[in-house]
Amino acid sequence: MRFSLPLPRRSRHPLVRALSLLVGLAVVGVLMVFGLVVASVLLVGGAVVFALRQWSRKRGAMSPAGRRAHVPEVIDGEFVVLHQTRHAAR
Known about the structure:
This protein is mostly helical. It has two helices and no strands. The longest helix is centred in the middle third of the chain and has 49 residues, at 14-62. It is flat and about 85 Å long. The two termini are 46 Å apart. The relative contact order is 0.04. The mean pLDDT is 84.
């Protein structure tokens, strides 16, 4: 089974063709401007969040509790090596 869309009929009137071209260009322009606005909002928002995180990190490092050396916590564990003595059932 073939699925095919009918071919759109192009107008022969030159004014209608010119207007459709201008409308198409306007739609593409609006979409591009909208995309640039969204991208700039995301970029500025990311920069603000990054700046706030850096600012809060620097303020936390100035406190007396932040000047002490951080001692990492160590988790002890025991490890057992298992040797496979027979083949797994296939």
